[in-house]
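step: validate -> pass
step: tokenize input -> pass
step: predict -> running
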Amino acid sequence: MAKILVIDDESIVRNAISNLLVSDGLEVDQAESGTQALSLADSEIYDLVLCDLIMDDMNGINILKRFKKRSQDVEFIIITAFATIDSAIDALRNGAYHYLVKPVNDEELLLTVRKAIERNELRMKVRRLESQLRSQFGRDDFIAINPGMQRVIQNAMAVGNTESNILINGESGTGKEVLAHVIHSASRRADKPFVAVNCAAMPEALLESELFGHVRGAFTGATNTKRGLVEEANGGTLFLDEIAETTLEFQAKLLRFSQFGEIRRVGSNATSKVDVRVISATNKNLKEAMHNNKFREDLYYRLAVIPLHIPPLRERIEDISILAQHFLQIQNKKNDRQRMHFSNKAIAVMNKYAWPGNVRELMNAIEYSCAICESETIEVQDLPFALQSQSELVPGFRSETNRTLEEVTKQYILHVLQETNWHQKKACQILGLSKTTLYRRLQQYGIKPKLMTTGSGS
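step: predict -> pass
step: emit ->
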């Protein structure tokens, strides 16, 4: 609900406007002077201000400038019985949304107020969309043919329309925030904000201020009252990532918020109600953290009403190639190289790799390969070295544990040379060796270096 401040030194006018707005379902505060209005703004954040132009202590233009200096987001409507072209131009030039002349028709006033609020909401919605476009993952990246992963997505869609809090567990890079977006998009809150907070990215004091907001003067540097991210998410979804990294003290504050839907800005004694659905995520075992007294049991059961687990990519082998193809299409479009594709050997290597960084690592690997590949086919040697150097590249490495290190090294060097068609430069890059060291190893193992090509022209 939008919050409005009405400023007028005439109580009859002030009350009449306020009562009209309240009857329209709006939340309204009143101020009889500019000084009182600025004092209220120290502890409250207003979406719209209606202000008389001429008052004893401060005129409406000066109040407008002071409010705009604090926040450009506030909409401002000047109301006056002494209208002039110059004052109207001055008001609009300084950021006023509209300029009304007393006596104001009720219908005209309500229509102007509604349009101002719509403009404010549209601006906030555009910001949210821009933020989503800048995010690294989009919902299309949640692609799966693995039955277990499909069940996770189906469950996420099913619980979307509930109001229950959800806890998502999964290793780093599995796409916990993406799944949270899926849940939000499937909910009745889909057209409302989705606000993500990384609890591990900030120290506790800053996290509390970011999450719950603060009032002016709450701490050094708090020059203005600031709305917290919980308030930004009002009506929508709040995503708390890395929830296990919070302190027990901060968890107590989260508990109160999750229990009663109430927040208190840092430096304020007043509480305010919010309507927020909470989705939390962690890559830790919270039950183990509870056992070790690092996570509150009461908060856990508040947050984990519906628990969801995302399996790691190594347990979804059938998804690796389709995800790789998806990320390749993204890179093809970005780099205008529409015909790039993977060789069968490159796909096989990707399928065998353990992917400790999960989907995020796969996405980065494809971007790397597209950047260094000089042809239309991404081969094994174009993949990141972590994939090239995995033990599966040497046939039988895992099963034959009785061979010496020298034998394994010789076989691996031979394998890389064969995979690169004895291309000296590429072989050195994959092996991480200088040309001199490679030649010395070849002589040591009795491999004739005359078969190699420099490939300097390629």
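step: describe -> Residues 317-451 form a domain with the Helicase, Ruva Protein; domain 3 fold (CATH 1.10.8.60).
step: cleanup -> pass
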